[in-house]
Amino acid sequence: MNTYKRHRFPPDIISYAVWLYYRFNLSHRDIEDLLAERGITVSREAIRLWCIKFGRLYARRLKRKHRGYGDTFYIDEVFVRINGKLHYLWRAVDQDGEVVDVFLQAKRDGAAAKRFFRRLVRSSGTEPRKIVTDKLRSYGVAHRELIPDTIHSTQQKANRDSLSWRPSA
Question: In this predicted model, what pLDDT tens digit does every residue of 88-97 receive, in sequence order?
Answer without folding.
Answer: 999 988 887 7
